[in-house]
């Protein structure tokens, strides 16, 4: 969707809420990936996701278009706040990253080449989640918004109310930490195999 199309859909949805479906269809996969990654149960994640879009429709009249990325930043800010609210309401500490047992993992589909490859992908998925969980909460959030939410640094900065350079630094250092930890983990696995 181009920025012009997005802006037009927003204008249409303000007058006719069912027109919001275009925005919903475009953003649902990204919001789903972000919330599902941050919330520990499927049921709770679905509730949060529904509330994100309900809130967006309800508050759309207050949204101010500021160009490309402004709607994504606004929508993910709603998601970020609702995830925090979810944990406050349940009086639980937000798990920065879920345990690998509770995450939706890639499923075996009819066009998956081989079961062994799917198992390898699932194991890699678990390893990545475990490695991300070792980062500071702020770096986890930045990496989650970037890679699961598909947001740019400017949008992440707006959501987290940080300077864009701070987001870039967290992203860079977080990825560097992940590479180093992955290398250590790979070395440990290689030594055990010998």
Q: Concise description?
A:
Helices cover about 70% and strands about 0% of the residues. The protein has about 190 residues and is mostly helical.
Care to describe what's here?
Helix 2 packs antiparallel against helix 3 (42-59). The relative contact order is 0.10. The protein has 8 helices and no strands. Mean pLDDT is 82; it is low at 93-110. With 194 residues, it is mostly helical. The radius of gyration is 19 Å and the shape is elongated. The protein folds into 2 domains: 1-95, RNA polymerase sigma factor, region 2, helix turn helix motif (Rna Polymerase Sigma Factor, Chain: A), CATH 1.10.1740; 108-194, Arc Repressor Mutant, subunit A. It has helices spanning 3-15, 21-38, 42-59, 70-89, 115-132, 137-147, 153-160, 164-193. Helix content is 70%, strand content 0%.
CATH homolog superfamily of the largest domain: RNA polymerase sigma factor, region 2, helix turn helix motif
Largest sheet: none
Number of strands: 0
CATH architecture of the largest domain: Orthogonal Bundle
The count of domains is 2
How far apart are the first and last residues' alpha carbons, in Å? 51 Å
CATH class of the largest domain: Mainly Alpha
Question: What proportion of the residues is helical, as a percent range?
Answer: over 70%
| Beta-strand content estimate | under 5%
């Amino acid at each position: 969707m181009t920025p012009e199309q997005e802006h037009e859909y927003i204008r249409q949805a303000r007058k006719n809420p069912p027109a919001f479906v275009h925005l919903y269809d475009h953003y649902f996969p990204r919001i789903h990936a972000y919330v599902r990654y941050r919330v520990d149960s499927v049921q709770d994640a679905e509730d949060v996701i529904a509330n994100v879009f309900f809130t967006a429709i309800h508050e759309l009249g207050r949204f101010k278009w500021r160009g490309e990325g402004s709607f994504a930043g606004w929508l993910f800010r709603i998601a970020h706040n609702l995830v925090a609210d979810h944990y406050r309401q349940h009086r639980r500490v937000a798990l920065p990253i879920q345990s690998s047992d509770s995450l939706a993992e890639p499923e075996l589909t009819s066009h998956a080449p081989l079961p062994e490859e799917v198992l390898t992908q699932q194991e890699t998925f678990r390893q990545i989640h475990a490695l991300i969980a070792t980062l500071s909460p702020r770096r986890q959030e930045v990496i989650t918004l970037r890679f699961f939410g598909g947001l740019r640094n400017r949008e992440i900065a707006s959501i987290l109310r940080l300077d864009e350079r701070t987001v870039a630094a967290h992203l860079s250092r977080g990825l560097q930490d992940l590479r180093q930890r992955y290398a250590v983990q790979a070395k440990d696995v290689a030594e055990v195999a010998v």
